[in-house]
Amino acid sequence: MISQQHRAHRASYNGSTPGSCPGSGLLLTASSEDSELPASDSLMTSAELTHSGAVPLASRSRALYKVLCFVLLALQGAVLDFYLIAFTDLSWCSWIATDLVVLSGWAIFFIKNARNKRERACGFHQKSSALGSGLGEFTYAYLAWLIYVIACTPKVVLVVETSILELLTLKVPCGVTGFKGAVLLSAPLLFCLIGAVTEDSTGATRHRAHASFLSTCLDLLDSFMLVELLLRNELPVPPLRYTVLCAFFLALFAPVIWLHELTAFELSCRSLCARFCTGLLVNAPVLTVRCFQVYAHGEPVSVFLFKNVFMLTCRALEVMEQCVMARGVRKLAASNPAHFSHGVSENDMCPHGYVNTLAVNQS
C-alpha cells in the first residue's frame, strides 16, 4: 500500500497535460506492513530538483565541457596544420577541410546525443525495441572519438616520419616540445568528452567512464615514453619505430571500445574480449620493446615494464571473471525470468535507465 501523502503527490505530479513527457519522479512501493511512511522520508522529484537549481547547474557544466571540446579540437588541429602547411608542399586546404569535418562531426554527435536523451526522457525508446536496447547517455560517443582518431593519426605520422621534426627544432620557438604538447591534448579532450555527455555526476556509468579514462591515460603515457625515444632518434631500427607508433595509436583508439560499451545496458563477453585484445595490442608490443632495450642495449629497467606485465595479467583475469559471471547471470535469467521482472515495468524506468521501484516481495 502507498501512503495517502504519496498517493496525492503522485496524482498531482502525473496530472500534466496530454502529450507531455512523464517526469522522473520516484515511486516507492512496499508491503502492507510498511503502509505509513513519515513525511521526512519522502523522496525529491525531478520538479523539486529543477526548482533547487541542481538540474540547470548540471546542464551548464555539460555545456562548458562541450565548448572545451571544440576549443581543444580547434587548438590541436591548428597546431598540427601549421606544422604540415609550413614545412611541406602539401595543399593547405586538405588539412583545414579535415579539421572542419571533425568539428562538424562532433557538432552532429552532440545534437544527436541531446535528441536521444530527450526521446528517452519521453519514453520513445523502449528496452524491447532493437534500437532502444543499446541507447544510453554515451550514445554515438564512440563514433565521435573514431572520427577524431582517423583525422589525427595521419597528421602525427607525417610529422614523426618526415624531416618536419628537424625543422621544428630549428625554426619553431617551442620546437619538439610544442609538438608533444599538441599530441597530448588528446587526454584532456577525452576527459571533456566524458563530462559533456554524462548526466548523473554520481552514477555508476560516470565511475566506469573515469576508470576507463584513467586506464587509457596510463597506456598513452606508457607508449608516449617510447615515442619520445623515437623523437630523439634513439630507436633507429624501423621495426621498433613502427611497433612504438602502432602501440601509441592503438592506445589512442582504445576509447572507441569502452565508449561503445558504455552505450549498452548489458556488458557482453564479446565486448570484454574486444577490450582485452585492445589492451593486449597496446601492452604486449611496448613490453617487447622495453625488454629489447634492456637486454640488447643494456638500458635500465623501467617501472612501466612491470606495469605492462601487471596490466596484461589483470586484463586476462578480468575477461575470464566477467565472462563467467555474464554467462551465469544469463542462464539464471533464462531459467527464472519472473524473478528478475517482478515488480518492475516500463513505466517504472526513469530517463537515466535505472529502476526507481523498490519491490518488497514477502513470501
Automatic annotation (TrEMBL):
The keyword Nucleotide-binding does not apply. InterPro entries: CECR6, CECR6/TMEM121. The keyword Membrane applies. The chain crosses the membrane at residues 67-86, 92-111, 140-158, 178-197, 209-230, 242-260. Keywords: Membrane, Transmembrane, Transmembrane helix. Belongs to the TMEM121 family. This is Transmembrane protein 121B.
